[in-house]
Amino acid sequence: MVLNVPYTHRGLKGVREAAEVCLKCGVCCAVPEYGCPAHYGPSYNPRYTYVYDCLGHEEPHTNPSIWQCVSCHKCEEMCPYEVSPVHFIEAMKERAMEAGVSPESIIGELQQVVDTGYAFPLTANAERQRQELGLEPLKATEELRRIAEATGLLGLLGRTRK
Amino acid sequence: MRYSFFRGCFIPVRLPHVEKVAATVLPELGVDLSPVEGFTCCPEPIGFTVNHPLTGLVVSARNIALAEEQGRDIITLCNGCTYTLKQANETLKADSELRGRVNEVLAETGHLFRGTLEVRHFAQVLMDQVGLQRVRCKVEKPLSGLRVASHTGCHILSPHEVMGFDDPQAPVKLDAMMEVLGATPLDYAYKTQCCGWTLSNYGDRNAASRLLGDKLTAMHAAGADSVSVICPQCLAQLDTGQMLAARALQLGFRLPALFYLQYLALAMGYSLEDAGYDKHRVRDPGFEEKLRRILA
Questions:
Q1: DSSP-assigned letters across all residues of B71-137
Q2: Which sequence spans correspond to the domains of chain B?
Q3: Substitution target from A28, A31, A34 for chain B, most B beta carbons within 10 A
Q4: Whose CB has fewer CB within 10 Å in chain A, the N or C terminal residue?
Q5: Cβ–Cβ contacts within 10 Å for residue B51, how many?
Q6: What is the ipTM metric for this complex?
Q7: B74 - beta bridge partners?
């Protein structure tokens, strides 16, 4: 199989070359006991695997299937041709972010971490439970905003959320 | 042994009883946990770092830098935190150009990544620094006869060349850690399969339930009384996720999932209540009764 979209990415050497080697053999998704967990998703089967769906899409970064990837690296460990689909899919998620087409859940999490320092909301329930267990209260920090501003993430989030 | 205690955010916010049990049992094994002011999310690998790698790397570098300022290696309670921080640490130690770029941004917060410490999951600390012999010496109530299905989880195993914890396709360490507590470890199909937490939260909830249903059915078929995990997301999925999957798939059994440190607490003489079992969604009278007999 040849990728539909030529792909190059800064800092990820060999990703495009590796992805183009995929022979659609389906080994990465063939065995439910230890293969790709995303294979449990909507409509994948050995003739049209999850990984093929991601690698063969015309505009891979807009393919909703990329968000099924959990970065578990099982495809990478199993692939007889060292294609490493996980690196390709992760690079596509990064490209989706740059293009402003990431899902709302991802944008929300990035914003939450940047704003508070925590990926999960500091709820009153959490505080109550901590208090009952004799654990000290949690403190939010805004120091990450300065980092996100310098890296351009804050601007990217602002544009995407509009 | 004194470590910078990296609690992460899932445990302090969603599973504070795991933080409590860690702070109770680890010091008894000579693992002292030093709080570090200002630690943030590691950040979460799939929701954060993958999507904006440079920011992810700088946030990780900041966390590591805070520990460096205390001069102590990091201990974590989470596969995800370990995956993020260890990869960042190794990458930044090896790549001086990238380190320079990251430190330039990090200077905005007044910190500097030097690359002087190690990041370790508590299971790595127990295996390599404490040693199972010393763990065995602390066992007052061996969990004899308790049949436990271990689930090591994905992100402490892979990528193996960075994580270096155990064989990703045939992990044995968590079984050894359970065995030292007196429990009987089990082999079962789907042992290395993902818990499905990430799939459930970012991908497809129904797919995650089907995956978890297959995994739990295999554990049950192997005769498991309960499940052992070393990652808070795995715990949430095998507990709350199991409740949802059992409802959707009409599973006819319940398999309580406990964090390894909860089993350790039980073996050290603490009660189920002390270990925070009452905070779990999947509890089973058969398991509780068996455990009461074992601990009696």
A1: T--EEES-HHHHHHHHHHHHHHHH-HHHHHHHHHHHGGGT--------EEEHHHIIIIII-HHHHHH
A2: 2-123, 139-295
A3: A34
A4: C
A5: 24
A6: 0.93
A7: B4, B119
Do B214 and A146 count as a contact with CB atoms less than 8 A apart? no
- Taking the C-alpha atoms of residue B30 and residue B137, their distance in angstroms, rounded to an integer, is 12
pTM score, whole prediction: 0.95
Average pLDDT over residues A142-152: 95
Record: contact B12-A102, CB cut-off 8 A: no
Give the tens place of pLDDT for each residue, B97-118.
Answer: 999 999 999 999 999 999 999 9
For B139-295, which CATH class?
Answer: alpha beta
pLDDT value of position A6: 40
In this prediction, residue A162 carries a pLDDT of 64
Select from A54, A118, A136, A138 the residue whose CB has the most chain B CBs within 10 Å, as the one to mutate to test that interface: A118
How close A15 gets to chain B, by Cα (Å)? 15
Q: Does B48 touch chain A (CB under 8 A)?
A: yes
Contact: B48, A113; criterion CB under 8 Å: yes
* Amino acid sitting at position B105: V
Between chain A and chain B, how many beta carbons pairs sit less than 8 Å apart?
Answer: 182
> Which B residues, 84 through 143, put their C-beta within 8 Å of a C-beta on chain A?
105-106, 108-109
- Judge: B52–A94 Cβ closer than 8 Å, yes or no: yes
Contact B169 A34 (CB under 8 A): yes
Q: Are strands B184-185 and B226-229 parallel, antiparallel or unpaired?
A: unpaired
| B282-287: average pLDDT | 98
Alpha-carbon span B166 to A51, nearest angstrom: 26
- Which fold does the domain B2-123 belong to in CATH? Glutathione S-transferase Yfyf (Class Pi); Chain A, domain 2 (1.20.1050)
Contacts of A94 in chain B (CB under 8 A): 50-53
Q: What is the mean pLDDT of residues A42-58?
A: 77
What domains appear along chain A, each with residue ranges and CATH number? 15-99 (1.10.1060.10), 104-161 (no CATH)
pLDDT in tens, A102-127: 999 999 999 999 999 999 999 999 99
Identify any residues that bridge with B6 across adjacent strands, giving them in sequence order.
B76
